Amino acid sequence: MWLPWDRRVQAGLPLIDPAAGDDPETNIINFRPPRTIVQEAWRRRAYAVGFALALFLVSMTVLAWQSSPGRTPVKPGDTVVESIRAPRRVTFVSQTRTRISRDQASAQSPAIYDYDSNLLRQFRGRAADLLRNLSAVKADTLLPTEQRRRMVIRLEAGFNGDAVEAMLSMDDVDWRVTVGEALRVLDENVRERLRAEQIAERRASIIAQISAQLTEPQQVILTDILTLYLRPNVLVNDVETERVRKEARDRVVPVSVTIEPGEVIVRAGDVITPEDAEKLQALGLGTRAFDAFGLAGVSVYAAVIVTLFTVALGSLYGDILLRPRRLAMIGVVLVGSMVAARLVIPGQPWVAYAFPSAVAIMLVSNLLDAPLAVLVAVVQAALLAPITGYSFELVILFLAKGIVGAIAARRIDRLNAFFIAGLAVAVTNLAVAFAFRLLSSDLDSQALLNIASGAAVDGVLSAVLTMGSFSLVGSVFGVTTMLQLLELAHPSQPLLRRILTEAPGTYHHSILVGNLAERAAEQIGVDSLLVRVGAYYHDVGKLRRPYYFVENQFDGDNIHHRLSPEASATAIIDHVIHGLELAREYRLPVAVQAFIVEHHGTRLAGFFYREALKVAGADSVDERAFRYPGPRPQRKETALVMLADTVEASVRAASNRSANSLENLVERAVNERILEGELDDSTLTLRDLDTVKRSFVQQLRGVYHRRLDYTDGADAELAILGRRGGELPEREA
């Protein structure tokens, strides 16, 4: 499989396919195989699915992470290490308070009783039977006392020992009095309604009334009989009572609890109560036990966000789905901000106002694209919502900071620009927080001071962290930063200095190409700085043999007069290969290397090819020996340098540089590249090309404008001060 040039460069493979066949129809294909729409679509889908799946899995790991160091315990009975205040206003249904209210309502509901009129009669009859049997045992004096004692206990196991002894030792008169008194008392209570809670009081009242008439042994026996057979006849209906109490519980409305911003939930050293734990859970500040429904909800939420993000990337930035390193960068900065938020925000609500979430967005804006960074800001705010307990205020805060950071960091060409961007983030932070304080009428001075301090910290951290990491992030993910480009564009750069001193003609040609391409890039809205730097280094390969190129032949000796067309073509074409070698040696970014290998595309070295045809004939000349290795320009930026390079060389070689001639030269050069198919992969549109042509003509008119022809000081003075009263002759410079 023949790889694109940037993959070949990274792998250290040759640029030209060594296995190319001899079929003339495959010449261009050997240099750069065409990518079919179907293949590219499948690659895009594969990268999109892989990116979405990876981002979803990592996001779920972070969102479901329950073991963050320094987290405040929320299990009832744990001790709080530091005081926790509510970061926002929240209203929730308190299960603890609702349960207490329902228990109180149930307890206050009266029990439902049923009256059983026959119950006491049944017990009175059982007592009469017992007393008759006891009288028989007592009357049988022939039996030993111990045997009679066992018979009494068999008749009623509920008698205590004192009652049994008193019964057996009591004379018949006292016994008959005791029996009669017991039956009388039971008869009197048969018609009464007695509840269980009334029995003890009724029994004590009866004993008190008859104690003066009975001896102590009689009282002992009577007390045991009343205890055993004086029972309640009004009983609780358990089924009806439970039904009534359930209705009372159901009538209780769930208790809602409102937590105000800044309210102290628990203080340092306090033991967490169930109600405290419930409040922390409602605020998203606690660690809950495994919650299958909660985990499922977070999973669906994250899946929706990640899916929408991936679809938006494919629709709005389709090319980025074919750049896995840039996709990886977006995923890493998103996940990095989520991990940092998970570590520092829970349990410390005020930290959210100092949390530098905008760093990730500023990196994307500066390294990739500002509109893309705005999209990432929306996704970041949504993914941080579960960590903040779905706080609307904090979601808006993160979103606003991200959008402002994306705009402020879209073009940073000086170090102080980082701090200006940080200041914009801090002001946005303060404005959003203050707006929500006004909406909630919470203008506590201490809270406002905390917010202002957090905003200041956020601004400083956003500036410092972005400035300190953007070069590293760009290097890791293969993204060329603006400061790198500015450094490469400086004349003191060693490689650029070499071009100036060793190939001055090439240097000035590159400067003109850079000026033409940069202005055109600004007109069509692409990276003009990258275009300018790419133009400066596109011909760096000429350093190996600068005298082979006409712009560096100052003594009039053209070495190609002594070489065969094939040798000349090889020497000219090799400046692409040599340029790539020098670029690697001087560690030029891959984005700049693209200009070196793409600025000639797969074009023919036409002049030497035609010379070879004159010498050897069409059948003896291999066209591939005269064709540049390519690939064709893959981006608008490299295509602009190709066009500017062609136009500048054509105009420099032309003898007529009038306005009409310049327009014709530009039109012909651009149309030739279109007909050759060299611009097919660059995504340049016809509208772009019209804009580029107008820009080229305007710039060339400025370079090759007509000048006044003066030969003495007076004419020079007139040329400086302007014409007065007459017309001076003009000639083309």
Give keywords:
733 residues, mainly alpha, Arp2/3 complex 21 kDa subunit ARPC3, Hypothetical protein af1432, two-stranded antiparallel ribbon, 30 helices, 8 strands, 3% strand, disordered N terminus
Walk me through the structure.
By secondary structure, the protein is mostly helical. It folds into 3 domains: 35-66 and 290-479, Arp2/3 complex 21 kDa subunit ARPC3 (Orthogonal Bundle), CATH 1.10.1760.20; 113-236, no CATH class; 490-721, Orthogonal Bundle (Hypothetical protein af1432), CATH 1.10.3210. The protein contains 30 helices and 8 strands. The chain has helices at residues 5-11, 27-31, 37-63, 95-108, 119-139, 145-155, 161-169, 172-190, 196-210, 216-229, 238-250, 274-283, 292-316, 324-344, 358-367, 370-384, 392-408, 416-439, 445-476, 482-489, 494-502, 504-524, 528-537, 565-585, 590-598, 606-616, 636-653, 659-676, 686-703, 713-721, and strands at 84-85, 90-93, 113-115, 234-236, 256-259, 264-266, 707-708, 730-731. A two-stranded antiparallel ribbon has the order 1-6. Strands 2-5 form a two-stranded antiparallel sheet. Strands 3-4 form a two-stranded antiparallel ribbon. Helix 3 runs antiparallel to helix 13, helix 5 (119-139) runs antiparallel to helix 8 (172-190) and helix 22 crosses helix 29. Residues 1-37, 66-72 and 713-733 have low confidence and may be disordered.
